[in-house]
Design a protein that fits this description.
CATH class of the largest domain in chain B: Alpha Beta
CATH topology of the largest domain in chain B: Rossmann fold
Oligomer: heterodimer
CATH superfamily of the largest domain in chain B: Response regulator
Strand content of chain A: under 5%
Number of strands of chain B: 13
Number of domains of chain A: 1
Strand content of chain B: 15-25%
Low-confidence stretches of chain A: none
Mean pLDDT of chain B: 86
Order of helices and strands of chain B: HEHEHEHEHEEHEHEHEHEHEHEEH
Structural class of chain A: mainly alpha
CATH architecture of chain A: Orthogonal Bundle
Helix content of chain A: over 70%
Distance between the termini of chain B: 67 Å
Number of helices of chain A: 15
Shape of chain B: elongated
Chain lengths: 332, 363
Amino acid sequence: MTAWVAKNRTTLVVAAVVIVAAYVFYYAKNDIAPSMFGAAWGYAIPLVLAALVGVIGERSGVVNIGIEGQMLLAAFAGFFAAAFSGSMIVGILAGVGTGLLAGGFLAWTTVRWRMDQIIAGVVLNIVATGLTSFYLVSGKILPGVIPNIEVPVLSAIPLIGDVFFSGRSAIALVAIIAAVTVHLALFHSRWGLRTRAVGEYPSAADTAGINVERLRLVNVTIAGSLAGLAGVYLSMDASSSFERGMTAGRGFLALAIMIMGAWRPLRAFAMALFFGFVNAVASQLQQTGGVSIPPQLTGTLPYVATLVVLAVAAGRVRAPGAVGQPYVKKDQ
Amino acid sequence: MKSPRYLVAVPAALALALAGCGGSTGTTGGGSTATGSTDAGAPTDDSNCGDAEVFCIGLVTDTGKVDDKSFNQSAHEGALAAQAETNGFYKYVETQDPKDYAPNMAQFTNKKYDVVVTVGFLMTEATATAAAASPDTKFIGVDQFFDPEAVTAKNVTGILFPEDQAGYGAGYLAGLMTKTNKLGQVLGQEIPPVQKFAKGFEAGAKAANPEVTVSTVYHPAGDNAFNDPVWGAGEAKKMLAQKADIIFGAGGNTGNGALQEVAKASGAGESLFCIGVDTDQWDTVPAAQPCLITSAMKLITEGVTDTIITAKDGEFEGLTTMGAAGLAPYHDFEDKIPEDVKTKVADIVSQMEAGTLETGVTL
């Protein structure tokens, strides 16, 4: 325990300061603070899910810059499956399934065919933009809404309960659970050890008897379901319409968050929240007026904050060793 | 083992074919729509646009889409109506990137189109340049103001709308309807037409109810400011949590996201309302109907149609053509809005139309 504390001292101190500051703000400005934290989390949900897709992929050694396209395809499939079938459940399943398919496409092209991973991701993004624009039908509406969930007991906690455990749909809960699960699985399970080995030093993993190709295929494909869920969140939960290009760069933002989070699920979660909060501050500054700052300037706040965090954290984060390189057995 | 890389060519080619290069296009020749006998003999392609008797209309959007359910769609419908009326040919291009404004317009001028409609404030400069370069084509710029000192071409006019009046009327209604004295506006990019809506709304709300406070947010990013419904919804949610009870969503799909968020909130249509923009969004955004009491309209469709007809018949009246603005019907809220409120709003609107009431909005 003490060893763990000593090892993670910086993280713990930062976390403690942030939590104390959040509670102080929460009680001091109770008229606006809860809604700002809520907006931060609402902004962060798709980023958390998408960043996890990136983390799983890159930890296995596959760069996924096609997250944007995966989300867009899933948002499209989910919305229209729900609109045409009249069932939200069908829509959600279709969205997640589409995410899986898109993940499978990326996995197959990059791992089996050893296509350049960047090009495969770009192709996925372009295909997604093309398909979703081409087959778009106007004037459809969702048959219902994804219901909000109040988690018993947890929702009564001040601040944390308000933000994370009430007034949000199940997708938000899944995002939290997924971040924790991926963290535990990655660092405390056999699958995690193998995945990291495959991402760091695939030839060593291969020598140890791990099927590198199969593990990468499975990981990248399964991670696609999270991108699918993020897409469903965008078109069926956070808004209730599908619009062309509605992912609006969130897939790329998620990659930045993955890097800021040092390829670790929980840190990526924290970074997504941080990014969401800076966004909420930016819009609150505009909204309350008083200080007259042009929105173009406040709008840069999240990016300036990103730069600062990256600059401070630079040198301490390191990408998995084999990221971006297809694995070819030497004897072939 | 040799990996079959050529297989990736299939999805790549598919992607390129579908995504297009300069933007999506669509055409409507009068003859191909097969709506009736009246348009028999209308041209079905643009190969003869140079002929005097063939009337060709081209439309270039700003980075918005012709199915955005508000601004661009209205202009597109206006051009369609003009095409039907003039028995001409119509084609549109959706711009994907601002640097394509000029090439997209050149697609039309190269084929000697008679009229090119450019939609959106952001295309002002590109339109003026193109008009100077192609004196045989008439240019109509929606939401564009051409400075008489800088633009000498006679073949161009900008349609301007009194957005501030529409915003003022909507704000007046909101000021009378609010119970919490807090209103919110979720807006697209901070450009003059949007600012005029927003400032008009605020001025109208304060005129109706001095107690009222109006929270205003513009989308910070430049390139997707009018196409980010998720951001709009998030901002609306935040404003509702801060006790705003009427939200004005003005900014294409971004604003539509805000309207839909209010429509989903509990109390929508009872204690929470929303107000749309540009067109009567009761028809264009059905998901917003639970809360949509009215829309601050600018009559783009009519303005575009009329101006195209003017262009066909002769010369523009000048560098600026004034369009009209107003409030959309209350639809299902006709009975829920108190009589005296409706009377007061109608009074304000007629005063603005008569020119006896100034909104006091300056940019």
